[in-house]
Amino acid sequence: MSDESLHGFPPDYARARADFLAAARNADARLRSFVLPGHRGPDGEELAVDTAYLGPDAPEKLLVAVSGTHGIEGFCGSACQTRVLLGEGIARSAAGPATGVLLIHGLNPYGFAYARRVNEDNIDLNRNFVDHAAPPHSEAYEAVHAALVPADDGTFVPAELVARLTALRGELGPQRLQEAVTRGQYRHRDGLFYGGASPAWGRRVFETIVAEQIAGAAHVGYIDLHTGLGARGVGEPIFRGGEDADARRRAHRWYGDALTASEEGTSSSTPIVGNTATAVAAGVGAATRLTAITLEFGTQPGPEVLVGLCADAWLHRHHPPADAVRSDLKRLIREAFCPDDAEWRRLVLDRAREVFGQAVDGLAEGQ
Q: Which residue from 57, 73, 228, 336 has the fewest beta carbons nearer than 10 Å?
């Protein structure tokens, strides 16, 4: 494992993957890889979803932690998995005769490698888990798409983008604007938070992992690692479900009063559709107790994050991926989802350590 990754966050996808695999081997984890066909990274590197498992062949209880569902957010999630869960031995300590730990690394490897939130087809993977024969329609997004993704002549003027977004924010208010932008939309392939027209490769891989490595456990503690919403450096556990009647109360017992819920209006996240927890719930069935959260780390104020997303969308509409990833404009989305700030990174790892500990304790107590 490199000193740079050990003491901070990985500088790129290739290093993140190499360090994760090395840490997993050092922990004697069982590894599995799913290679993305037809695509390579900016330097020709292989792109893959990797899983590392510690524990018995058929665990009764299972802790699952996922990084990189939103590509670029994998810098943070990978650091949490590699340094905290594997490097500090938490995963090895949590695994036992009846308990397993499954780490899913780089669920969207293309976005991770090219510093994008979306995948190789501009799909937001965390909006892709829907019935594409009858996808949910977001009328609210229709009203903001033109401002977010304007028809232009290939020039990017940051001041004009900020002016458009400021006008939208003034017209709709911050809450309604966030809901319109982020809920998920299925009609504009070049738009933001596009959920796709069919199951993405990453979704198919994830459903395979759920069926073959998660289903069968009696109790699953699920944590999907994300960045970009909430107060800077704060790790917010957002309830994402479980089909049994006690799931919400159980999650509160694990994570305390910090637990929020989008549907209750207590979260930095407004309600979304088609997220990974949906696939876990469907794949494990009602007989499994599922305690699912998103662990969301705040970075910048919402308007600045949105500017970064719009700038990145423009960049990749007008430039080949290999050029876009090296553009100076990438600094906007990097700062929006993985700030180059030692104090922020320290807060993230401290909070991840705390939340992983709460999940391990919750599973062990069987509550």
A: 57
Distance, CA of 27 to CA of 91 (rounded, Å) = 8
Q: What is the pTM of this model?
A: 0.96
pLDDT level of residue 156 (50, 70, 90 thresholds): confident
Whether the CB-CB separation of 72 and 338 falls below 8 Å is answered with yes
Estimate the crossing angle of helix 247-255 against helix 342-365, to 10 degrees.
120
User: Would the pLDDT of 84 be above 50?
Assistant: yes
CA dihedral 126, 131, 135, 140 (to 10 degrees): -40
Predicted confidence at residue 2, as pLDDT, reads 42
Strand-strand pairing, 219-232 and 289-298? parallel
- Pairing status of strand 235-241 against strand 48-54: unpaired
Q: Are 203 and 128 in contact (CB under 8 A)?
A: yes
Given a cut of 70, is residue 76 above it in pLDDT? yes
Whether residue 92 is predicted with pLDDT greater than 80 in this model: the reply is yes
307 φ/ψ angles, rounded to the nearest 5 degrees: -60, -45
pLDDT, tens digit (0-9, with 9 covering 90-100), for 60-69:
999 999 999 9
Strands (E), 181-261: 219-232, 235-241
Classify residue 136 by its DSSP letter.
Answer: P
Length of the chain: 367
Q: What is the DSSP letter of 260?
A: B
Q: Can you tell me the mean pLDDT for 71-85?
A: 98
- Distance separating alpha carbons of residues 282 and 284, to the nearest angstrom: 6
Amino acid at 167: A
- Tell me the one-letter amino acid at 114: Y
Alpha helices in the chain (DSSP H): 3-7, 13-26, 74-79, 90-94, 109-113, 139-142, 145-148, 158-172, 174-182, 201-209, 247-255, 276-284, 302-318, 321-324, 330-337, 342-365
**Which residue has tokens 């994760």?**
20
